[in-house]
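Narrative of activities, Objective 1.

The group set out to show that a structural description can be obtained from nothing but a protein's sequence at a throughput compatible with the screening campaign. Below is one input-output pair from the validation batch, recorded exactly as produced.
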Amino acid sequence: MRIRAACLVIALSACGRGSPPAAPSTGPTGPTSTLPAGGSGTLPTAASATATTATTASGTLVGTAHPIVVEAAARDGSWVVICQARADTDGDGEIAVHTGHHGDTYGDRFEPYVVRGAGAGELIDSLVGHTRDGRWLVVLRAGKLALLDARTGAWSDLPGADVRDDGVPLGPHRAASVARAGDHLTYFHDDETIVVRELSSGTERLVKVPGARVWRVEVEPPGEWALVYVIRTDSDKDGKLTWPSVRTSLSDRDCRGPIASYSTGGWSGDKPDQLWLELATGVIGPTRAAGAPPASAASEEAALGSHLGREILAIDRAGRRLMAPRSDDHGIPMGPLEWVTP
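Output recorded for this entry:
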């Protein structure tokens, strides 16, 4: 997820300027918007379509004996998102995944799974985001936006969520944005409506941005403010408001292999304006409030180290270490992952 977040900053900064940057920037630098502040309303209780509880497995293996890529893991190992090819989808008589130079894979089809503790896991559509402490995991599954509370083990669907993708592989899926170190999540109901959810209570607030197409929202790590990208001008003169898209050799964002290199060749679509959303109040406007503290850049916790030359992905309450897969000369290692007791 760290790579995704860094790429997104670069991508949105480039789009705001109309061309790709030569080097990573510290944040978006596109023009601010003159769009009037939109209205907001508070929903007293959060709607939840489904909520099912599953017990965390206590075994020693994560995934199955097939090609594997690790997408993300809670630091305590309560969940791990992996991608695996578990079937001979290309019909060549073997299960194998090969890699290109830009994160692309070919051969048998990778599919993403959420594994809670241990086991084969449950199939999902896509990883969207998660909090730094691992308490909350946001995914797409069965075509819906869903939220996992790792503390209770309950899944909650977010009904009415707009799960359309913009196809920009430089950042995470646009369907939702979660505060890495805070208590807020945002998602969309339609082109003009942002939903701000307080994770701890489940309460939600609707924020309207009339007269614009909301493209993306990026919640800052502390969870107090979010940068909102909106399309309000037909800058490419095609007669409609269109989300930006980027010309790039980078592979799709999900289930990538190793990235040796990639290039970008500019953007198409309309140029976004920027707004600032105060998540606690739902107030949205062209600037942050005077005196608002800047988001901390040092929001990620330190790595968990290594054991016998392999990265430690998680450490559970019993002190077991979840080990990264062994490296493979062809780029894609074999599963499963293993919990070990040092």
